[in-house]
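Subject: complex prediction, re-run

Hi both,

The earlier run crashed halfway through, so I resubmitted it with identical inputs.
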Amino acid sequence: MTAHSHTDQPALTKNQSLVYDALTDAKAPLSAYAILDGLREHGIRAPLQVYRALDKLLELGLVHRLESLNSFVACSNSECGARETMVFAICVKCNKVSELADDRLEAHLGALAAADHFTVHAATVELRGICGQCRSDA
Amino acid sequence: MTAHSHTDQPALTKNQSLVYDALTDAKAPLSAYAILDGLREHGIRAPLQVYRALDKLLELGLVHRLESLNSFVACSNSECGARETMVFAICVKCNKVSELADDRLEAHLGALAAADHFTVHAATVELRGICGQCRSDA
DNA sequence: ATTGCATATGTTATGGTGTTACACAATAAA
DNA sequence: TTTATTGTGTAACACCATAACATATGCAAT
Ligand SMILES: [Zn+2]
Ligand SMILES: [Zn+2]
Ligand SMILES: [Zn+2]
Ligand SMILES: [Zn+2]
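This time it finished cleanly. Structure:
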């Protein structure tokens, strides 16, 4: 598996920028169709225009897909490029997502899998719970 | 979050048994629609019949949903009832899934989240890679 | 037995998510 | 200019999941 660096990215195309900006402006994960709806006034009319932009942004490591939500977020952790496995903490109350890094998690999961003779290529780790802000408010 | 025991389950209904048996017989995760197709000869005709059975089986802890595949597997680990977080190792070559338990993983993820003032209620951990059998075959 | 309640079922229609196929445009080598 | 690569636009389709409504079944408590 290859870790990607966020430096020296090629300039994004128009559609890619529109989608990326939509995600960076959002305070919560967006589905592809939510992105589509938000960009209709900017000329985006079909799902494929969004999905193609997302594919590229995912490949560049600029956005991530949250499997448990069928949604996407902009990368928000500078350590992300140096790691293979990031953890997403999803608040069920306000829908905010924190992208967390952990030095030992990858080794931990790799060792667990190795005990079953399994070689890990990629990991999805998504936590559901309550964020600090929402816990304070409660 | 509540851990469930697999003992003393209520008897499954007809549809629940059909769906559960389909999953236990399968060698790989099944989508709801794949289950539906396999059960048409047994009188299952609509997606809801499958989804309702799956909801109950999920609640009983007899099956699990794999978020990254939009698919379902029968529980295959006896330690599952005693834990909140299980790990699914999905072979990208043969599609087999191993359900792994780890005593320390839950604490590990909890601590990582706590550093961000996040309280974990549930975790999704899905690994993609190559199983031992497929590695031997290669 | 009758009533009442909770759970399960059957069916239709609808909505949300993601891809295939094909045509065309822009960009960058060669 | 020719060629190859990448990006774009559109329509149609396939897959995943739920809403709404009607009916049936099992199991109390009277
Ligand atoms: Zn990231
Ligand atoms: Zn929150
Ligand atoms: Zn299990
Ligand atoms: Zn395999």
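The longest helix of chain B spans residues 47-60.

- K.
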